[in-house]
Amino acid sequence: xxxxxxxxxxxxxxxxxxxxxxxxxxxxxxxxxxxxxxxxxxxxxxxxxxxxxxxxxxxxxxxxxxxxxxxxxxxxxxxxxxxxxxxxxxxxxxxxxxxxxxxxxxxxxxxxxxxxxxxxxxxxxxxxxxxxxxxxxxxxxxxxxxxxxxxxxxxxxxxx
Length: 160
Prior knowledge:
CATH class: Alpha Beta
Largest sheet: 2 strands, antiparallel
Number of helices: 5
CATH architecture: 2-Layer Sandwich
Strand content: 15-25%
Shape: globular
Number of domains: 1
Strand order of the largest sheet: 1-8
Low-confidence stretches: none
Distance between the termini: 41 Å
Mean pLDDT: 91
Order of helices and strands: EHEEHEEHEEHEH
Number of strands: 8
Radius of gyration: 17 Å
Helix content: 25-40%
């Protein structure tokens, strides 16, 4: 089983380092608009959530691409966009439920997270642990534990 970019939203401080390092790696400049992830911020609720490609098992972006430019990297498991095949139609942007693919104005094409070829920079620079790159089975176990913990908290609150 492959690795997975796990988001721990409760640890996110909205520092946006992940956006900056992603944009630097991909475009050579610190420009969050050129990052392949973004931190959704809800200031009134003190809630922050890094949003990025989920590298779906059955990616909608891949299904709608008329050029066959959306491919899975056999080594990393990442769903990537082959820039040589991309025609810039933006169908993948419209199909993605997470808003992961982004248009690149300079090329007229589309790009998205490629997990930095198996070494995500965003994870390396997230000192709070809001982003982790973990084995998929480990991520599933952690997610189940988190759901169980939240359920336990709710039950205590209701019973208390």
